[in-house]
Structures are given as C-alpha cells and as structure tokens.
Design a protein that fits this description.
Layout lengths: L1 E4 L17 E5 L5 E11 L2 E8 L4 E5 L10 H7 L4 E5 L18 H14 L5 E6 L1 H12 L4 E7 L4 H10 L1 H6 L1 H8 L3 H17 L6 H10 L2 H11 L26 E6 L21 E6 L6 H4 L1 H14 L5
Parallel strand pairs: 1-10, 5-6, 5-7, 7-8, 8-9, 9-10
Antiparallel strand pairs: 2-3, 3-4, 4-6
Helix pairs in contact: 1-11, 2-3, 6-9, 7-8, 7-9
C-alpha cells in the first residue's frame, strides 16, 4: 500500500449549456470543456440516464446522493481525451426513473444499473469511479462484479467495513453519522430534505454559480424519498457492533476487491473520520493506493480538482490503461 500526501490548491469551475437538450457542454476548473451526449439504458425495467463523451476504455462515474452527474465535470473533461467517460444519473435522481419502495435502492440494484451501462457500451469491464453514496455503489460493484471491474477509484468514500467497525467503537464517528440516522428514523425526512435542497438551489440561483440553472433543474427532478430509501436500504442501523449489517454485508462477509484500487481521501472529511481508513488493505486484494489530502473535505474531486484529476490520470497511466 502506498500513501500519497498532497496540498489543496484553489480552482475555478465553470459551466455552459449548449445545443439541444441531449447535449450538455461542461467546463472544468481549467476552462477546458467537452460536450456530453445524453443517453439511457434499461436496467431490469428501470430507465437509467447517462451523459457520455470521448472514446476509448470505458470509465463509469457514479455521483453522490446530492451531486448530479455534472459534478464530475472536473474529471470528465480531461479523461475524455483518453477514455469514453460515462456519468450516470442514479435511480431516483435527475432524469432517471424513480421506482418506489426501499427494496429498489439496495446496493445490488444500483450495481445492476452499472452493469447495464457497461453492457450498453458493449464492454466486458470498466473503470468505476464513485464519490459519497456513489463511492459505496462503486465499492459494492467492485466487490460483487470482480470480472467486470477494470479498476476502482473512490473519492472521499471509505470501504463500508471500515465505517461499520468505527460506528461500533468510535463515538465521534457515531456523531458524524447522525444525518444518516435521521434519514432512517425521521418520518418527515424526505419532505425536510427535499425542502432544504430546493432552498439551497434557489439561493444559488441568485448568485454567481454558473451551474445554478442546471442544478436547480436536477434538484427539482430529484425524488427525496429515493434518497431516504438509500439510507433505509443500506446504511448500518444501531445498536452498532461488529455483527452489524450494512451495504449488504457484515464485516466478515465483504468480498475482497480484486481490482487495483485508488482511494483519495480528504483529511477534513466530516462524514468519515480518519479511523475508517485503518486496515483498509484487509478488504482489497488488488494493488491499493491511498492518497490523503490535507485541508480537503469530503468532496476532493471538486475541492481540489487540480490535484485529483492529474492524479487519477497518472494512476491510470501507470497501470497501462491510458492512451
């Protein structure tokens, strides 16, 4: 295992819509841009929308619970020069279908959606990149579909077994997870969360955020009940112990990740305390690289794109998959 340390640098991000509704031009922190084409795929009766650009080996981006597909713009632009990049809109979000019922938001269901995207592009395997909830989906896919995972990149999201262990032993991690517990237990969680998201979008519309209009549209389409269902279906529930199930498994049951794995973690992460990184190697049989960024929080892909994007390209190139 190699541990890399980096420093946070400031970066500016811009966005510009262009052309027909199916084409969206995204701009990264450097001012470089690419046009992403909208498409969709059927995943066992659920329509999953994605945006894609570039040609080459397949890279699938899986977004956070609150960050739409275009939150990957700082990585999609540069990677599209060497890869076919595909940013999915997970079920329940943006233009993708929003099936009802907790059972439709399990890790296995979303892993099936990722597999459907890989099939759609006629590929056997893909590089899977995830952040926040998308990071957990990415970890699960790599664990349960080793033959379909070329490489795994998790940005800010720790292995779920490390989270369960710390929830069982660390009061600080338990406190850091109170939002998720509220999503499971508060009967008004969906309504409250939806109202907060819409209020935030409205506030952004009055500022200088170039993404404000697109973000407001995505939030308006977001099904807040789907977000709640993600936590009900997957997040560990108290009382916590080493036997607690979360994200489909107990600690001793998680299949080891076989693919080479890169984890970029912001040292100031609020949802996942540093202890969640301990012994990560136990759950990864492939080559494991951890990069810790001082001064960076839970979203290193957007907080420090000038570090994260070149590091991803370097890591992929070192593995011989970059053109």
């Amino acid at each position: 295992m190699r541990i890399w340390l980096g420093l946070l640098t400031a970066a500016l991000v811009a966005f510009a819509p262009a052309g027909a509704a199916a084409d969206v031009t995204i701009e990264d922190w450097r001012g470089e841009s690419v046009t992403a084409r909208e498409g969709s795929v059927d995943s066992d009766g659920v329509n999953i929308v994605f945006h894609t650009a570039g040609e080459g080996p397949l890279v699938v981006f899986v977004h956070s619970i609150v960050g739409p597909w275009f939150d990957w713009r700082n990585q999609m632009v540069a990677l599209s020069e060497h890869y076919r990049v595909v940013a999915m809109s997970t079920r329940g979000t943006d233009k993708s279908d929003k099936p009802t019922g907790v059972e439709n938001y399990t890790m296995a269901k979303i892993s099936g959606d990722i597999a459907a995207i890989i099939d759609h592009f006629g590929e056997e395997r893909a590089i899977i990149v995830g952040q926040d909830s998308g990071g957990f989906y990415a970890w699960h896919f790599a664990m349960t579909h080793p033959d379909r995972t070329e490489r795994l990149i998790s940005l800010g999201t720790v292995h779920p077994a490390g989270l369960i262990r710390e929830l069982a032993s660390d009061p600080e991690q338990q406190q850091a997870s109170m939002f998720q517990r509220g999503m499971q237990e508060n009967p008004n969680a969906a309504a409250d969360f939806g109202a907060r998201m819409r209020a935030g979008a409205a506030q952004g519309a009055g500022g200088d955020d170039p993404l404000a209009a697109l973000r407001a549209e995505a939030i308006e389409r977001l099904n807040a009940e789907s977000v709640v269902n993600f936590y009900k279906a997957n997040w560990p529930r108290p009382p916590f112990s080493l036997e607690t199930e979360g994200f489909g498994f107990r600690i001793g049951e998680f299949p080891a990740v076989q693919a080479p794995t890169l984890l970029i973690y912001g040292k100031n992460s609020q949802p996942f305390k540093p202890g969640t990184l301990n012994d990560l190697w136990r759950w990864v049989d492939g080559e494991l690289t951890i990069q810790v960024l001082p001064g960076v929080g839970h979203g290193p892909h957007n907080e420090a794109p000038g570090i994260v994007t070149p590091r991803i390209l370097e890591w992929l190139g070192a593995g011989g998959t970059s053109n």
